[in-house]
Amino acid sequence: MSSSPSILLCNLHGIADIAFVDRADIKAYVGPPTLQACYEILRSCLQELLRTGILSNSQDGGCLVLPNYASLKEKMSEVVSTESQMFPHLGKQLLEAAEACEGMSGRSLRKLPFLAHAALANPYSCEPGNFLHVMMQTAKREHSELSE
Fold this sequence. Notes:
54% helix, 2 domains, elongated
């Protein structure tokens, strides 16, 4: 009877019990999400909050669609003649929020919108831009609590 190798993928470096780690045949450290991954995780959370009506959608008719990371970087490198468009501004704010989240785990990133929504003064009528501002503040607070 052959046994398959045990594999341990971990992003809790230094926290897992050494006896537990030693039992794995293959060990791989999985670091925190990249900036692009942070952006996409937060973008998917924000899109869901907009889709479900938890955040107010300020576009008439359809649901506001935030650009993916690649599209945002492309638009930021172009000279945008119509700066009044809302989604490039929100995309830039979302990128700033993702930058504030660098080093956080994927689980912490998924929890962040929930924490930000709980911190809103009026959670029932919040514009996406205001929500992103609160989410950046929440991310900074989470970072400071982790470093303590």
